[in-house]
Amino acid sequence: MDVFAPAAPVPPQQSAITRRLAFAVGTLFIVGVIAAVGTLLGIAARLDREDIDETLFYTARALENRIAASKSYITSYADWTTAYEHLSTQVDTDWAYTQQNVGKTLFTSDGYDGVFVLDRQRTKYAVLQGQLEDVDISRLLKVPAASLVDQVQSQPDLTVPISTYSLFDGWPALVTAAVILPNDERPLGDPKQTSVLVFVDKLTPTKLRAIGVAYGLQNLNLTPDELLAKERPRVPLDNTGYSLTADLERPGQHLLWSLLPTLGAVLAVLMLLTAYFLRHALRSSRYVDQSFSTLQASNQALEAANHALEASEERFRAVAEAASDWIWEVDNQLRLTYLSARFSEVTGYPQTQWLGQGIGQLVACATTPLELWLKKLSEDSNASDLRCTYRDHAGQQRHCRLSARPIIDKHAVGGYRGTASDITDEVAAHAQIQHLSMHDALTGLPNRNQLARYLDDALLLKEHAPPLSLLVIDLDNFKPINDSLGHPAGDAVLQEVASRLRECTREHDIVARLGGDEFVVVLNGMDSRHEVDRFCTRLVESLHQPLAFEHHPLHVGASIGIALSRRQGFVPSELIRCADIALYQAKSEGKNTWCYFEAHMSDQIQTRRQMESDLRGALKNDEFVLHYQPRYKVDGKHIVSVEALVRWQHPTKGLLGPDLFIGLAEQTDLIVPLGRWVLREACETALTWPSDILLSVNLSPAQFALSDVVEDVREALVQTRFPASRLELEITENVMLVDTDGALATMNALKELGVRLNMDDFGTGYSSLGYLRAYPFDGIKIDKRFIASISHGANDRAVVQAIIGLGKAMGLTVTAEGVETEEQLDILGKDQCNEVQGYFMSRPIDKSAFAQLLKDSRGGPLEHTINASTHAQRL
Ligand code: C2E
Ligand code: MG
Ligand code: MG
After folding, report:
1. What is the pTM of this model?
2. Whose CA is nearest to atom 2 of ligand 1?
3. Which CATH superfamily is domain 611-870 in?
4. Distance CA 528, CA 516 (A)
5. Looking at the domain that runs over 50-247, which CATH code has it been given?
6. CA dist., res. 193 & res. 213, Å (int)
7. CB count in 10 Å sphere of residue 270
8. Ligand 3 centre from 782 Cα, in Å?
9. PAS domain spans which residues (predicted)?
10. What gap in Å lies between CA 623 and CA 100, rounded to an integer?
């Protein structure tokens, strides 16, 4: 049977119908109750609304009738000839009040609180609450008396009275006014001249109650509008701020109050009955559901158990046959009784070869004997797995991880079963990672981590440990190779250097690569200077041998800094630091050399580092300036060329000469950007000079090594548009010493740009004039040391004469540098030197001073020039 088949369909449907029915009955009941209550509320509201309408209607009617009665009553007095005769002009008080024609009785029996006779100008007669008073109606009445008189006198029919509401003595009153007229046929004059009779009926609570009773109104009352609730039904009395109200009967609410208790009781009973019914219905349906689910669940459980059993067997088979692990079983003698099919695939042995054999013969663990581990398993089932080795059919050593469980047979351990996972690849990968973390990937040499570990071990015993010499080696000339020939060349160099370093060292020494072109050699058990010097000589020689890359010979050198454990201490990082400082010193002393750490180097290094960082800042902040020193024809008058000489306008130390920073710039890479700046700046400035004046710029040998000078010069010429034919480059012979072939190629390329080349400081190096022949120089500058001594002895003069003679014979322009006296100038003139340069003619001066000098020298004799130069800034 399919365990996932749906259950028999009827019971769930039945229970669903019951539930839906119960829900419908419940809903119907609620809807019914809401409808009934709604209807009842509607009826009650309608009854209340009718009651309000009725009350308002009767209130209004009561007022209208009061007005009508008052109008007709006043007409009976005003439209009366006798009254006209006694009241219209001069009021006859005796007739009116004493004889009670229009007097007390109007209050006592008719309820008028005020009776007045007035005309446009004044109140002529006033009776207040039955008493004759001398009072002006305007003092009591809020409505202006004049407008009242106007209104009644302008009626088309003067016999018709008017009525209005007004506050009288602070209380709402009905004011009725009529023109006093004769009721005979006599002619009437101007209506405006007639007198007006006014009756004031104050609507007091007593009067209102009486009116209300007559109209079936309860508690008819006057209330100020502001005190009445907004929704309160009312009849407003215009002009007074008061409204008439009466108590409402509210028949709707009465109805509700009388019906609600009964209705509530009935609803509650009905609700209880419905709830009982629904609960009963739902419970029966749930019971049906439950009994069905129980039946279904027991079927499903049975099915699931069968299924799980099948799956488990299936899984076991799959795991046993397809998993990378193999499964084994041993009896209590630890002889193999079962091996899964996977065993022969992994190990290459047929299972039958091993069945019956002891498992210990197949696998072994170097740290824990197998028997012991298995025995421990029967005591502690949580024991961890065991890493073992074995030899496969081909004799290869492999690694596996064993896990096992005891087989309990009748409460005793009858053997063990478990799995063996082959972890040979995992172990190899781990070893590889381990190796990589400790070795440099390119050269295979130990890296910084491994070196640190080695030093920690070697220096653990401090002074009791064998002495160590730690050498930090930095390759010279590596960067240009890497930059110009690319990384493959750089990598090849590093690999070759690594192998040469290994060749030079003994087995218990260590050679490590720290990164870049920096290596460390630790000579274990050796620290005599003599031995270390010998080692360094060998090393430098070995590294000096050309390296072959794609059939190119590459030249690198090495500078070495040395620290000795017995002198610089047993802290690895400190040793490396000291050797580093010594290396810095070695580099500044010249390449291909070594240097032992000395305490004073730290300070020097510190100062140099500071200077180096200042120098970097200076480039960024544009702190360099160029001074210019002219070169003359040997007559000392005509300027042929101008040499640009760099200075550093240091923010605190003042103007610094090149001897203080060019060396440092050369040892760092800073000479490259500095050299480019000088070229550009000089060319730009020289553009402002007459076109027959050449410009000389010094190039450092380091620029040749660290940068593509040809490109630098080309770029400066292109960017400034300075003619190449006006540019002269001064190069010292050291250029040829570093890389003879490379220097020649570079110089030829420079010549191809169209510039002139001058050999500077001739005579200070090793070069001979014959040697010069191979290079494309246009001129030489004899170093100032020779010139300084020409006037002292015939021997020195002879040397200079020889140089001039041979130079000229080779077609070179010969310049004498450092001419400081007239005598020197004369001698050079006699010896037919071509050109001269020196303080005698002009010191190096700044841009503007040189411009002035030029102006003067072009316009006048040499004295001007000398004067100008003495004013110029001196170093
Ligand atoms: P240099 O190229 O041989 O320049 C001539 C040096 O001799 C200048 O020194 C100059 O001031 C000095 N000098 C000129 N006439 C006389 C004299 O009659 N008597 C004496 N005693 N000295 C005189 P400065 O300016 O100190 O330059 C020194 C060196 O610095 C230069 O020697 C040059 O090798 C280097 N240098 C100067 N500017 C640059 C530059 O822009 N780039 C490079 N790479 N090197 C430069
Ligand atoms: Mg020079
Ligand atoms: Mg020079």
Report:
1. 0.45
2. 698
3. EAL domain (3.20.20.450)
4. 29
5. 3.30.450
6. 42
7. 13
8. 8
9. 312-357
10. 128
